[in-house]
Amino acid sequence: MPVLVFCIIVSFMLYLFYKTKYFRTNRPMEKGWLSGKSAMALGSFVLFFGINQFFLELSTARIIVGILFVLFGSASAFNGFRQYKHFLPLAVEEAEVYETT
């Protein structure tokens, strides 16, 4: 399905983008914030990949792998969102401190 392939590619590109920003920053709270964003992107990549498995030729192994990918992708995206939500105010406060000094 072309829409899912597009979502897979975009989410993987976002993962690479956020992971690159993660390695380039020196601020610890911003690292946690970017790590959450990259975890959401990677989780959505795995989730979309798992959903895409259901639109291909179905077999028992493909269904099991698709279900596992959907479960692990959803869990990773959810935990990434929790991490993002936790570090966002801390990263904003850290940026304000670095900006004033």
Task: Describe, in plain words, how this protein is organized in 3D.
The protein is an all-alpha fold and 101 residues long. The chain has one domain. The chain contains 3 helices and no strands. This is YtpI-like protein. The chain crosses the membrane at residues 38-56, 63-81. Keywords: Membrane, Transmembrane, Transmembrane helix. It holds the Pfam family YtpI.
Secondary-structure map:
Blueprint: H1 2-24, H2 28-53, H3 60-100
CA-based shape: elongated
Total individual domains: 1
| Structural class label | mainly alpha
SSE arrangement, N to C: HHH
- Mean pLDDT value: 94
The beta-strand count equals 0
Number of helical regions = 3
Low-confidence blocks of residues: none
> Per DSSP, what share of the residues sits in E-state strands of 2 or more residues?
under 5%
Gap between N and C termini: 51 Å
What keywords describe this structure?
3 helices; 89% helix; YtpI; mainly alpha; 0% strand; 101 residues
State the gist of this model.
89% of the residues lie in helices and 0% in strands.
